[in-house]
Design a protein that fits this description.
three-stranded antiparallel beta sheet; 17 strands; alpha+beta
Length: 237
Amino acid sequence: MSMFIGPYPYTITNTYLGMMAQEERLSLAANNMANASTPGFKRDVPVFEGYLVKQSKTYFAEGPFEYTERELDGALHGPGFFQIETPAGIRYTRNGNFKVNSTGLIVTQDGEPLIGAGFVPEGSLKVIIEPEGRVQAINQDGEAVVIGQIELVEFDDPNMLIKEGYDLYVPKSPDFLPQPAAATTVEQGFLEKSNVNPVNEMVQMIELHRIYEALQKIVHTKQEMDEQAIGQLGKIS
């Protein structure tokens, strides 16, 4: 981490730029920490251009699975996404924490429909989500009735997606379209946890605070030197 300090003392401008970069990195790390327990959340990392953080990049590695026993929870094995119908259009998510609304529709915790999942008939005893996304309801006679097919999708380059909120994604361009999932399956009764490592993020935040304080001290020292120089000039005149 100390390598970020090296260039800054040579000019006060670079020192200020260094402070700005650490603020951006701290903000990303803090957001990662805040969402460490959010299902399907993917951590963000900074992308530098010179001394400045120009943007962030989402790290899409699969997170660990947690067994919940809830039949409407589903974790995704592979690179794919669920499709969600929102008021702003279709969005994509790895958060498989679903429920049934008052009409029987399978929706997110925010009430937005899971595309393809269908309606659970009233009085159903159980819902089965198969690995390929087919959804069945077990009726009171013990019969399995197919009610939907979750439309899983994949992207050639997920880095072309941008975050919308904490667990939804939208393509950077409307021309960037997904394909039907070929290498993704659903694990019913599980949730994919965040891929944030809280210990690593905490260590990083501590190191970033130290770097910021070191740069801040450089600025204060330069200001004191300038004030002393101005004072000396005043005495000479």
